[in-house]
Amino acid sequence: MTFTPAQRVAVLDECPGGNPRTPRYVRGRVGEVLQAHGVVVNPLDHRAPYPPLYTVLFVLGGGDEVTADLHEEWLRPA
Questions:
Q1: Rounded-to-integer distance, Cα 35 and Cα 66, Å
Q2: 6, 9, 54, 59 - which has most CB atoms within 10 Å?
Q3: Count of other CB atoms within 10 angstroms of residue 44
Q4: Nearest to residue 1, comparing CAs of 52, 49, 50, 42?
């Protein structure tokens, strides 16, 4: 896995071939990794293992916080 808890990451605006379930409201934002889940295997939904998954915390306007589970292919170091 590339990222560790407490590390700041940036979410790509677009990721060709990436998981389309990445919420638009976190795309292009910077957040902090809360938890690294590792590779996710789901043979009922996907024939190959998914890239590593991370829970990322984002602080929005007004101090509101939201978390999102994002695959590594969407993230870059911030």
A1: 14
A2: 54
A3: 4
A4: 52
Q: Per-residue b/e over 12-32, b at no fewer than 16 CB within 10 Å?
A: eeebeeeeeebeeebeebebb
Quote the CA–CA distance of 11 and 26 in Å, as a whole number: 7
Look at the chain and count its residues: 78
- The model's pLDDT over 2-13, given as tens digits with 9 standing for 90+, comes to 999 999 999 999
Domains contained in the chain, CATH given:
8-77 (2.30.30.50)
Whether 19 shows a pLDDT value over 80: the answer reads no
Q: Which residues pair with 76 in a beta bridge?
A: 10
State whether residue 3 is helix, strand or coil.
coil
Q: Within the chain, what is the greatest distance between any pair of CA atoms?
A: 41
CA distance 70 to 19: 9
